[in-house]
From TrEMBL:
PROSITE patterns: TAT
Position of the signal peptide: none
Organism: Paremcibacter congregatus
Protein's name according to its UniProt entry: TraB/GumN family protein
The organism's place on the tree of life at top rank: Bacteria
């Protein structure tokens, strides 16, 4: 459950701010499947929310994608090209990058005598040492000083990248470039600092659950990525909820912080876009839109007419 969430929060933030260890490894890695040329047609979930004459489109994003996924067609293309403004989870400018980098540096490592060995059982600790050595070249002294969230995100991002997932092919990245070429406004529902804080400011037991879940999934990583991709590409609400949301609910603190609380925080902004008289195109991670705590249900509960286009 954590892998797709980490991908969502890290694509624009972590890959640009994490520091020399990960950056160097990413530059040296050769993604498996990166040269795949067979096009995969996707029909990601898309809704229109209506209020009077105003329209707002909601699209479920996948923040990193293989280069061969074809999703910018049909209702997605028509809706996006009709929009007056684009809204993302967050817009990362230079000031935001600096702020996030400072947060990461302050919160990435134990500064006292504590180590990961004190928080992981022996089996997961040995697994962590093996993966961190193989994937990052870290010795035990260095690896054990990383906080659980930081180790989890390092291992996850490297696995995502080595599986042929490309941050430059992510839905947000592609749409942001198109919006800027059209010279329409691009805004965010939260600041970069708020987004990163949702990931890192958790008690150590919650961070440890995040790391152990990541370690357990790395053995069969590709099957999880394939599951998430298939659900997203289908645009099927139930498949998306089953693949991306239901397993996350087992980790209540993470579920509340990464999904529910952020959805609730975004709602006033989304309603503001609905009332500004413009046609807005809002793109957020697909997991945020579906399920009992999803934005689509929240809007319907408030009386908005929300129609699924695909």
């Amino acid at each position: 459950m954590i892998l797709h969430v980490i991908g969502a929060l890290s694509r624009r933030l972590f890959l640009k701010t994490s520091g020399a260890i990960l950056t160097g490894l990413l530059l040296l890695s050769v993604p498996v499947g990166a040269n795949e040329t067979t096009s995969v047609k996707a029909t990601p979930a898309l809704w229109v929310v209506e209020k009077g004459d105003a329209k707002t489109y909601l699209m479920g994003s996948f923040h990193l994608l293989p280069k061969n996924y074809d999703w910018y067609h049909g209702p997605v293309r028509t809706s996006f090209e009709a929009a007056d403004e684009m809204v993302m989870e967050t817009v990362l400018d230079q000031a935001g990058m600096a702020a996030v980098q400072a947060i990461v540096m302050r919160n990435s490592s134990f500064t006292d005598a504590d180590t990961l060995k004190n928080h992981l059982d022996d089996a997961h600790y040995q697994k962590m040492l093996g993966f961190s050595k193989a994937m990052m070249g870290l010795d035990e002294a260095t690896a054990q000083k990383m906080k659980p969230w930081f180790m989890a995100i390092n291992l996850s991002v490297l696995s995502i990248m080595s599986s042929g997932m490309d941050p430059n092919s992510g839905v947000d990245k592609i749409l942001e470039a198109r919006a800027r070429s059209r010279q329409i406004a691009v805004t965010g529902l939260e600041t970069p600092t708020e987004q990163m804080s949702a990931l890192i400011h958790h008690p150590l037991p919650v961070q440890t659950a995040m790391l152990t879940d990541t370690l357990d999934k790395l053995d069969d990583f590709k099957s999880y990525i394939d599951l998430y991709l298939s659900a997203w590409a289908s645009g099927d609400n139930d498949k998306i909820a089953e693949a991306m949301v239901e397993d996350m609910e087992k980790y209540e603190a993470m579920y509340q912080a990464l999904l529910v609380q952020r959805n609730e925080n975004w709602m006033p902004g989304i309603e503001g876009y609905l009332g500004n008289g413009k046609t807005s195109f809002i793109v957020v991670g697909a997991a945020h839109l579906v399920g009992k705590d999803g934005i689509v249900k929240m809007l319907r509960d408030k009386g908005y007419n929300v129609i699924k286009l695909q």
